[in-house]
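Hello Y.,

Per our agreement to keep a running log of every chain we model this quarter, I'm adding this entry. I've kept the format consistent with earlier entries: sequence first, then predicted structure.
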Amino acid sequence: MLGAENYQPKPYSESSEMMKDHQSNLETIIGKRMKELWVAWDTNIHEWFNDAPVIIVFEEGQIELCAFKSVQFIIIFNEMTLSKPNDWYGTGLQLSWKKNGLK
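Predicted structure for the entry above:
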């Protein structure tokens, strides 16, 4: 699903809890230059599918960010494979990863 095997994201509502889980990963991208930004693209209506994560690629890895509901967010690292098509929970939506799709 979404180009990640066994994708089981953990939603956070408190940044302190997220920092406890991901501080070391976040520290590795301090001062690093962003190389690419990828979004899920709905190929039927030709627009950004904003329910899926936004992926920011750095030289040493990538961070995947997603807002979940209005008070929760998801952050994961290096789980999405951009070469795999998106399967949005078996719905049949025609999604693909699009580089710099927010332009």
